[in-house]
């Protein structure tokens, strides 16, 4: 009986020691998990080209810093700001400062620019004419219907002497600011995303560079008239909300977008159609 008691006691001690060993291993695993860098999810809305492509290029760099970047693409200029304001996104990257200013004013947003990243030259394109000299009386000209980009188109037309504006430096100019239209141009206002489809309809179409690139148009080669890059006020910016603009992940994203790697990526991939703004 004594012998069996000793054996039973030995088995119990072995079980206790094994449990302690397992607990120690479990505690060690918990310590390792706690000591590992915490991964932060960062959800950023972007136009497919070039914005999303630029963001995709810095994913590995951010991953190494504990930031998992999720890029959500949009084919319009409305939803990215709405979803950022609704906190469905942490940031967005598709617009310039004049457009953001208009959005904040007209839609009551409180969105802020974090940093400029690149410049996309805005231009006028045509499938029907090869030079502006061929633009006939009464020709159809399609421009974006949002105030900032519509103003860009009108300023370019004024610069070429095709129209006259009250103030040819006002980037918020509208059709109502046209004081002379010697060719009786029929100026049609449509959503910016629809512009490439107007190439078969209108004689001259003003297209934002991101939509031009998606339509296999190179602004520096295919546009009949194009903005100067020097002193261009339309640098595309990383945008966040007021409540998260100073978050560590947003700061790291901004730093990554200003890296030499991104500068090289932009220059090599877009060959002058897009230029770094830093």
From TrEMBL:
Gene Ontology CC terms: membrane
Pfam family, one: Lipoprotein_9
Signal peptide positions on this chain: 1-18
Record-annotated membrane-spanning stretches: none
Record has Membrane as a keyword: yes
InterPro entries (UniProt xref): Lipoprotein_NlpA
UniProt KW keywords: Lipoprotein, Membrane, Palmitate, Signal
Topology relative to the membrane: Lipid-anchor
Subcellular location: Membrane
PROSITE patterns (alphabetical): PROKAR_LIPOPROTEIN
Lipid attachment residues per UniProt (S-diacylglycerol cysteine): 20
Assigned protein family: Belongs to the nlpA lipoprotein family.
UniProt name for this protein: Lipoprotein
Taxonomic source organism: Paenibacillus polysaccharolyticus
């Amino acid at each position: 009986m004594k012998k069996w008691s000793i054996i039973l006691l030995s088995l119990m001690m072995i079980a206790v020691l094994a449990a302690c060993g397992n607990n120690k291993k479990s505690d060690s695993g918990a310590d390792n998990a706690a000591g590992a860098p915490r991964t932060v999810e960062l959800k950023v809305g972007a136009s497919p080209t070039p914005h999303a492509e630029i963001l995709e290029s810095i994913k590995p760099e951010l991953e190494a810093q504990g930031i998992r970047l999720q890029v959500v693409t949009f084919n319009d200029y409305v939803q990215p700001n709405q979803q950022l304001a609704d906190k469905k996104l942490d940031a967005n990257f598709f617009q310039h400062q004049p457009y953001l200013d208009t959005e904040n004013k007209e839609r009551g947003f409180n969105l802020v620019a974090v940093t400029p990243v690149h410049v996309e030259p805005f231009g006028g394109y045509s499938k029907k004419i090869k030079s502006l000299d061929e633009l006939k009386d009464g020709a159809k000209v399609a421009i974006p219907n949002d105030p900032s980009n519509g103003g860009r188109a009108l300023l370019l037309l004024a610069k070429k002497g095709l129209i006259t504006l009250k103030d040819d430096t006002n980037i918020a100019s509208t059709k109502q600011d046209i004081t002379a239209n010697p060719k009786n141009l029929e100026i049609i206002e449509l959503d910016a995303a629809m512009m490439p489809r107007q190439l078969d309809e209108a004689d001259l179409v003003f297209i934002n560079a991101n939509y031009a690139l998606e339509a296999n148009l190179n602004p520096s080669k295919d546009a009949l008239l194009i903005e100067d890059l020097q002193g261009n006020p339309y640098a595309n910016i990383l945008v966040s909300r007021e409540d998260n603009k100073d978050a560590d992940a947003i700061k790291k994203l901004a730093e990554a977008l200003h890296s030499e790697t991104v500068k090289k990526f932009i220059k090599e991939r877009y060959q002058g159609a897009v230029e770094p703004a830093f």
